[in-house]
Amino acid sequence: MESEVKLIQLIKRTSDFHKAVSRIFQDLIILEDPRCMVSFPSVYLSIEHAIGAHTLIMLGMNSSGYILYRPQFETLTRGMWLLYAATDSYRESLLKQMSMEIEIQEKDNINLSQMLKHLEKSEAPKHIIEQLIEFRDLTLKALNSFIHGGYLPIVMASIKYPPEISINALLNSNALVAIASQLAVNLTDDKTKIEHVKDLHVQFSDCVYVI
């Protein structure tokens, strides 16, 4: 019962957290730097996936919600990679596709493991990359099972989801949202937004792991 109450409280606090993050993203003016311009859409998608997952969990659709945590993680990682580790030619090609100057290329041979390896060798903040790698190592196998309809979602669909699973999933997701918010404001020169992100860690310390 205690865990169920904690989950209900965490779901509400996460809703408040997402609203605060959404306000930060309003009127963001991204620097006209190719690295920033290609990175931001991926970072924004990460936030969108997190909000979608939370909404599904609120509706009791846990398995469907958990599926979105994989793209939340991957779009954040790609946003970091585009900013710190992608080649100039890759960014230029992506910018042209974003502006519809060339036809969208469906194939992309850069996978998650490669992006993380590139980021380890880049000037990206080391403690953030370490957290992304830890998230991958701890959760990716389980998330893939949900995405591909493996044994985990089948088993969990036949029993009542333990509240602890959703609590841990929401806390991890909120930590990724905090990283994404920090990265997004760093793509602007709006210092007030940076201060707002810092305030998030104080206002929502009960539902966001320390970054």
Short description:
The chain has 211 residues and is mainly alpha-helical. Helix content is 74%, strand content 0%.
Secondary structure topology:
Elements: H1 2-25, H2 34-58, H3 62-67, H4 69-84, H5 88-98, H6 112-120, H7 126-147, H8 151-157, H9 163-186, H10 191-203
Instruction: Tell me the strand percentage band.
Output: under 5%
Largest β sheet strand count, sense and barrel closure: none
The Cα radius of gyration reads 18 Å
**Mean of residue pLDDT values:** 90
What does this molecule look like?
By secondary structure, the chain is mostly helical. It has one domain (2-203). Helices cover 74% and strands 0% of the residues. The protein is built from 10 helices and no strands. The chain has helices at 2-25, 34-58, 62-67, 69-84, 88-98, 112-120, 126-147, 151-157, 163-186, 191-203. The mean pLDDT is 90.
Task: Kindly list the characteristics that best describe this protein.
0% strand; globular; mainly alpha; 211 residues
